[in-house]
Amino acid sequence: MSLTIRSAVTLANGVKMPLLGLGTYQISGDDIKKSVNWAIEDGYIHIDTAASYCNEELIGNALKEIFASGKIKREDLFIVSKAATSEHGYENAINGCERSLKKLGIDYLDLYLIHWPGVKGLQPSAPENSVTRKETWRAFEKLYQDKKCRSIGVSNYTIKHLEELKKDCTVVPHVNQVEFHPFLYQQDLLDYCKANNIALEAYSSLVRGQDWENPTLKEVASKLGKSVSQVLLRWAIQKGVVVIPKSTKQDRIKENADLYNFNIPKDLEEKLDALNQSKHICWDPNTVL
């Protein structure tokens, strides 16, 4: 598979979403400005944030300087944010998007996601989660219709959540962002999303540094002459899955983008597939009714 840093998946509505992005979870202060600048210098054109990361304004300030410098234009970037659990419900979601746009200093998002299927203040087993999710999605469809977002989607949605949404929506989610790596190889979800023309996007692709000493992972990295992080990221994008690794280190940001001069052969890819333990290192959305 011939890929470059500009390679993209085509969403159901024709929008091109870059396969590689910069994740910004838990990055704040001066680190945000440095990370965003380094990423753009290294060819990244996709930046992922969320209301709950509390760094949208800092990213907006960095982007304002970058746009003013002429390094890149707004229309050449793919900017993603997400509605927090407190921003569920029709009016909350509309207002949440407006807040994110204002903080980021932009007129539209390339992708806006529902961050979590559960609603703040409700128990995961509460049936009201389902009712409120539907109201939130109605607001997302309105935001999409009003061109506040070029595409809309969800995050941490299981097949059950997606099936529920499909029964009551006008626009099927363009993207589903979930935890996805060899130790949580959600093949059923990947197959479902492909069958329904929903792009799958991975977070925690690097397993937060856990399991990097796994013998199979080290063996594959050694055979390919690549780092463990490069192997993990390449494994995902070869499956057509979007990745958004985060880092505050310039050399790591550069390394995470150096994925295009090698391929993981089928036999080694299958070894990585076999690492699946259904292991969540983050939260498990299956707990949400």
From TrEMBL:
Record: residues binding substrate: 115
Keyword Cell membrane carried by entry: no
> According to UniProt, where does the site described as Lowers pKa of active site Tyr lie?
82
One example of the protein's molecular function in GO is: oxidoreductase activity, acting on the CH-OH group of donors, NAD or NADP as acceptor
| Pfam families the record matches | Aldo_ket_red
Q: What is this protein called?
A: Aldo-keto reductase
Q: Where is the NADP-dependent oxidoreductase domain?
A: 20-276
Look up the domain of life of the source: Eukaryota
User: What's the family?
Assistant: Belongs to the aldo/keto reductase family.
Q: Which UniProt keywords apply?
A: NADP, Oxidoreductase
Q: What positions constitute the catalytic site?
A: 53
